[in-house]
Every structure is written in C-alpha cells, then in structure tokens.
Fold this sequence. Notes:
Blueprint: H1 2-9, H2 12-31, H3 38-44, H4 48-53, H5 63-91, H6 113-122, E1 126-129, E2 136-141, H7 148-169, E3 171-177, E4 182-185, E5 190-201, E6 207-218, E7 221-229, E8 234-236, E9 239-256, E10 262-269, E11 273-276, E12 281-289, E13 292-294, E14 300-302, E15 311-318, E16 321-328, E17 334-336, E18 339-356, H8 360-378, E19 383-388, E20 391-395, H9 400-416
Antiparallel strand pairs: 1-2, 2-19, 3-18, 4-5, 5-6, 6-7, 8-9, 9-10, 9-18, 11-12, 12-15, 13-14, 15-16, 17-18, 19-20
Helix pairs in contact: 2-5, 5-7, 7-8
Amino acid sequence: MSSRIKRWLFSLQFGLLLLLLMAVYVTFGTLLPQNLPDAFYLENYSWSAILLILGFNKAYSSLIFRMLMVLLLFNLSGCTLKMIPSLKRRYRQDYFPSPKPNAENLWPDQATLPAMLQMIENKGFTVSASKEEPGAYLAARHRLGVFGSTVTHIGIITIILSSFVGNYFAQEGFFNLMPGETATFHAENFSVSLKDFYITHRNDGSVEQYYSDLVVMENGHPVKEETVWVNKPLRHNGMMIYQTSFGWASKLQIRETTSGDVVQESYLRNEETVFFQPAHLNIQLFGYYPDFQMNMNGMPMTMTQEKRNPHYAVVLYHFGEFVDSFIMNPDQRFTYQGYEIGFPDSVMYTGLIYRKDFGYYAVLLGCFFLLAGLLLAFYFYPKYIYVKEGSLFAISRQNAWGFNMWLKRQITEFYTHGKEGDYK
C-alpha cells in the first residue's frame, strides 16, 4: 500500500490535480477583493460563508492554498529526483537510442557516406563511429536538452518555495484614501498621496474599471506619479500597492439655524456614526445611494455607482435612543434643536492593499529557470542520427515527426540547391 501511495504522490496525475486546484484559488484571488474585513464579504456576497471557510478572501495566504503548494512542491521534488538517474544515463556520450522498427529510411539514392557525414557535421552534430556495428556512424546534437524537464521542475520548485516563503514573511495591509489624503510607510521612507480617484462605466451603468492617481513622496518631495488599477500595481522601494476596492465618503455638515455658521464637518462612510456633542446626538449614515431607487420591500438601493439621483439614508439617536430617520438628497436639510443637518456632497475613496514580498527576486530566478528548461525541452531537445551506407534514420523522443521532416528537407536542399536549411 505504501509503495502505491508513493507512486501516486510522485505521479503526473497528482501533480495536474494540484495545479488545477491551485488554478481555482488563483482565479478567486484575481476576481475577488482580498484581505478585507469579513463584514465586507458578508454584506456583498450571498455565498460569503463558503467563501470565508475556504479562504477565498485571502486566497494567496490561506492555509488550504499553502497546503496545496507544499504538496505540489513535494510532488515535483519527488518526480525530479526519480528522473535524474535515467537522465544522467541518457546524457552520457555512449548513449544512443536505436531507430524504431517502422522508422523511415531517409538515405537518398544519389548519396555517398562521406557526403552525408559531412552534411550532418555541418549542422552541428557530433559524429562518431559505432563501436558495436562496423561501418555505422552515430550523430548527436543537443544532448544537454535531456535535462530540460529537470530544469523546468527546478524553476517551478523555486517559484513555489519562494512564493511560500514570501507569503509567510510578507508585510501586507489595507488602507483607504480620499483625494488629498496621504498614507506613510516609515520603514520604507516614503509616503503615497491620492491625487484623484475615478471609475469608468459600461453602457449598462455597471463598473468597468477603477483608477487611482497616486503621487509618491520622499522627504516631502514628489518623486513619482503613477495611475494604478486592478492588476496594475505601483512598485516603489520593494513595496507593491494594489488597487482592490472603492467606496463613497459623504460630507456631513452641521450649521446653526440662526447664524448659518458651520459648527461641525466630517466625512462618513456607509454605516458610520458621528457624535454631535452640543445636541447629544449620534448621527448615523445608514447608506449613500448615488443612483437612488426603492426596492420592492421599500428599502433604499442604488442602481449604479454613477451620481444620477444621489440620496442619503440617515438615522438619529439621542442618548442611545432612536429619534428619527430620513431619506434626503444633497439639497435637503433637517433641523434638530436649533441645528441644520445635511449631506451636501459625496466623494469616492480608494481601497488599496500594500505588500512587501521578500521572495520577489527569488521568484524571478525561478522564472528564469522555468524559461531555460522550456527552451531546452522544446527547442534544444536531444537529436540523434543513425548513418550507414544505404541507411539514414532520424531519432528523437520529442517531436520525432518534426525532426524527421527537417532532416529530410536538409538532404533535399543539400542535393538540389547545395545550401543549408534554416533549422536550428
């Protein structure tokens, strides 16, 4: 039983299953806002319980995703170690595979053995006489390509390991900014100011994309301006800042009824409350609705995020006791104990995630190994030619048909035009 489990853990099928499950996590990590408070998901997603249990709200750092990474790392390491002895034997200079029984003999009628050997050598093949068969010659090219799959695995292992370490030790957090506000990163010696935030809409009014115009400041001086959007982060001093969400902040304004003087101003987000001490009044912004409508249950809602018909739902409490509730537009005010209370305007704020990943450069190194391995495996794969008077066979474990056609073309061009082909 243990040997069967071991074979399964190191099998290609198990590796593909793990990659499929990780792809599901990556998809959710891309489509869903990440690392927000649980209340955000409970409010906005009907399947929030499953989302939170499976960790899709923190897809790249959840326990399930890390377990999948460890299993994939184990699977690839076992597969790689299991393959190395066989690959080392195939890399040796004395290794030469035999032609398949049904292989096509490419020897042309007008050919001579010296001419064929010379043409093959001109193509970069190393030619040696066969020790087992007198009169036969063996040609090989790109023997190093036999390690293509191993180098590819090393690249993937490096990426997974670096991502795992990076996720574990990464510095990460979430913050909101309204236009003109600034967030400071003391350890990295810079700050980020939001110059502007805006969204684009589709024809049906739904949100297409949202953008933050950010200004990076060092020692009080701007050093960089950049616009970020979903999947296009800002990078500075090893820190990555990602666009993740947006919302509305509504301006509360309280005036004295007699003088008209403004006695208090503040910005409230949905469901936030402010205390107005002179009247011992708690003012709660139940919700802001930029495109206000009433649903079938008599509850306020917004059709789009565009300012088409802005309204505010406000609730008042006096010493913790409910006083009244209003639905009002920006031009309206309500009066309470000699004070006029209103919400004259709302502005959008941006939700940003900052992340400093210590495995970033190691991941780049893994990507280099991955690319090198793919080039070895699919471009510089081992190619062999068996040559004997009257016999010439192309031999390859990868792309055998393509290599056979290339060699046939080289022979044709050699005798027809006297020039080399373009195969590399």
